[in-house]
């Protein structure tokens, strides 16, 4: 058995979410001494650096005289002139950065295609949904495994545009795949409902995990008051504007800070909303570059809030539970699948009811302690070991065919 992974998600995202899943798979393959390859050196990935396998050259560093360099200069001019940066311009950053790295990405694409054409591996597991390899995999003996992390692009196309590459590619790649892994039963149901012509016999569920309990206990930034924690990106379906509205009411009753960890810095639109609600000194953004920092942000929070309208799984739910942070999340199907009875649920469209729920529970030490204890138990039902063993079983099965 020889497994090939590609580079896509590592150029697309910073550490976290999908990349975390693949790093756990790599770790398991190393432990089992199973032969696998990825055409990148990711040893410094948490520091934002990707190196070539063929030397110490950083290949995700964009040159100053490039479209991305011009883009950064344009943003700088907007800021110096005190002008509001249009949202459409901010949303283009990752695409422009990727375009400016197209030469490096094309070179790595060619390495993957060559390996598939030469049948050097028994299984290929791409890390995202570009289809540069499609012709070569169709002519190769190598088996294709595809992971579906959510169906947000299909269910919320208004946030991504009808010409989004993922919507163009996902169905085509799913047809070509020998096995499809969905990260939850909820995601599997959504996927098979949308792509009802895909044979359900080749679709499996492998749950993610999210245990940060082994991360060392360290102090975190002093925010000057107790804080509620929000983690991750704040795109539309993440329901962040709803959370700000709730917190605006809550902060008039309790001395609290809302800490937003990860994701990009607040956009001009978000800052305008925050300032308009009188929350400029009560809503903070912090970045983090390691699981240790994230674990301690959870540990020191009064509670963790997850107000999304949709998710494919919800790794932060388990991360919070694993270190004793009470969880409050949207009353949606996938969160109930993951959190069970170890979370307090709320209607993600009823701000008044959610504010009342938070006030009630913040005043109840017993309730918060009960959620902590239930969380410790619930997180035991999920593990990266169980997750990665399931992937290995699929790789082994396909390697025997």
Automatic annotation (TrEMBL):
Residues covered by the Glycosyl transferase family domain: 226-377
Entry keyword annotation includes Hydrolase: no
InterPro entries in UniProt: Glyco_trans_1, Glyco_trans_4-like_N
Example GO biological process: lipopolysaccharide biosynthetic process
Annotated Gene3D superfamilies: Glycogen Phosphorylase B (3.40.50.2000)
Pfam hit, one: Glyco_transf_4
Domain Glycosyltransferase subfamily 4-like N-terminal: 115-213
Keywords, ordered alphabetically: Transferase
Signal peptide positions (record): none
GO molecular function, one term: glycosyltransferase activity
PANTHER family assigned to the protein according to its UniProt record, in alphabetical order: GLYCOSYLTRANSFERASE WBBK-RELATED
Protein name: Glycosyltransferase family 4 protein
Organism: Leptospira soteropolitanensis
